[in-house]
Amino acid sequence: MFSASALACVRGERAVFAGLSFTLAPGGALVLVGANGAGKSSLLRLMAGLLKPAAGHLAWDGADIADDYEAHRRRLRYVGHADALKPALSVLENLRSWSVLWGGRGGAAERAEAALEAFGIGRLRDVPARYLSAGQRRRLALSRLLVAPAPLWLLDEPRTALDVDAIARLDREVQRHRQAGGLVVMALHGGERPRRPRRSILRTRRRRPVI
User: Fold this and answer.
1) Which of 71, 103, 122, 185 is 20 to 30 A from 152 via CA?
2) What is the pLDDT of residue 4?
């Protein structure tokens, strides 16, 4: 169970949002929809423990994540705007390095190959990342979610640069993660909407989000 109580965020001297609360149960998805600058990325960074709230708190199974940020970070996978790839490494080498970094054990090579196939880039396994298109880079970044499993996925505008096929693949993996009891928080830009959202949709406003 992942929850927030009376959460507030201040960046610089600007109040981004305040009074935000939610509860996300296993298998649930929280979708953040809003314009640029509405606070979606800031909220995701708070959830990841990369920022500290100005007020309120975030909890995992009732325990404040601030009590042990390292334990919280081990239970999540965060994919932000930057693809964070090493240009000189091949597609497969990039993925395997992330598997090691995130603590993937046993069968890492097999999981990496399966992750590339899941996102439709298995044929590019030996291509250096510097030669990938924007959409291929994004597919590779998202494939990291599958090489070192964790219960909480935090995805910041994950559909950026993706074509129809890649979006369908992402939706399928999100659904599988939820069916296994995982939790997903996803920020979408502008007029985008998720297909058949089963849980809450958060529409962030410039001053105060409402859930």
Assistant:
1) 122
2) 95
